[in-house]
Amino acid sequence: MIGDRTEFARRLLRWYDTARRDLPWRVPPVPAPGARPDPYYVLLSELMLQQTQVSTVVAYFHRFVVEFPTIQSLAQADDQHVLRLWQGLGYYSRARNLHAAAKAIVARHGGVVPPDVKTLLELPGIGRYTAGAIASLAWETRAPILDGNVQRVLCRIYGIEADPRDRAVNARLWGLADSLLPRHRVGDFNSSLMELGATVCTPRSPTCLTCPAAMHCTAQQKGLQDRIPPARKTKASPQERRWVFCVEHKGKWLIQQRPAKGRWAGLWQFLTIPAGERPPEPHDLAGLGLKVNHMVPLGTIRHTLTHRRYEFVAVACKLTGRLPASTQPRTWVTPAELTQYPLSRPQLLIAQLAFASSAAPQA
Ligand code: ADE
């Protein structure tokens, strides 16, 4: 059991001061104790961290702040520029939400990231966790946070064996996260809970021996670490197959933009359609009215998202006839020009295969 909450917070903060990772959106503890991080950095990092690990986010965070050093510069940026910088980080609605949030903060709040949870929740892409993180980390507002790491830490400390995603359990955990907030340094306290979950109180094989909260922890006292939280019941996600045609003409490649809504919205891709039962015919490519020759198989790229698995079967080919009309914007690009367009990770991998195949000597 947790016992003295003040003592718990004191231990956690003392541990955090020495053990915390040096991350670019945090301020270093020296030479300015008590200094706050830039609220724009906190907003940017929290949106990037919503579905992605710290180790992947760091490089993207640097790229963004070099390109857009202020919230004003991000608000003024072109949509495609923002998407291109986000390219490879996945879950692209986060990039659109970040951009829309920056515009709203400049238009409605004079460029100042709001310090309170209620106003933050009105911004696109900001839910209860992210609002609490921004308010507390950037502004020292007394607001709790509860992400996957904090859920696990609290479940173990309080010996809660039920599934933390269960509604009632989740509501209880939010209440506990709130009740634990210390009087001072709430931002660092919230960060310390996340940090503990990420580095010590890990899903498997937590290192309880080095844990600053071990003497407060029910799971460690009863040896329940492996049972808390309970393993998720996994359901195989549906698989979808796509054919991808990398159509080349005089050294340029055909790409088209995806619709403004849905998965990979606004990103560019080679001609990609749901896979049919029969292999495509070169004189009428999969019924698209496209005439091609020199079809070269490039391989299959598999890509797993949270609720979907994709299989992209890619071929390179050369255009021989005219290009039929399309409702989506299309363009022809050289490999060098392609770098100016945002593409999803599987499409980037396919581009590499296509360009390598055209550079190889023809049989
Ligand atoms: N995960 C989510 N927010 C984080 C933060 N500010 N630092 C480290 N990991 C995080």
Can you put this structure into words, describing what you see?
The protein has 363 residues and is of the alpha+beta class. It has 14 helices and seven strands. The chain has helices spanning 5-19, 39-49, 54-67, 71-76, 79-86, 93-109, 117-121, 128-139, 148-158, 167-179, 186-199, 218-222, 335-338, 345-359, and strands spanning 239-249, 252-257, 268-269, 271-274, 292-304, 309-319, 330-333. Strands 1, 2, 3, 4, 5, 6 and 7 form a seven-stranded mixed beta sheet that branches. Strand 1 (239-249) and strand 2 (252-257) form a beta hairpin. Helix 9 (148-158) crosses helix 10. The model has no long low-confidence stretch (mean pLDDT 93). Bound molecules: adenine. Adenine binds next to helix 2 and helix 11. Adenine binds at residues 23, 45-46, 49, 54, 133, 147, 191, 194, 198.
Which characteristics define this entry?
363 residues; alpha+beta; 7-stranded mixed beta sheet
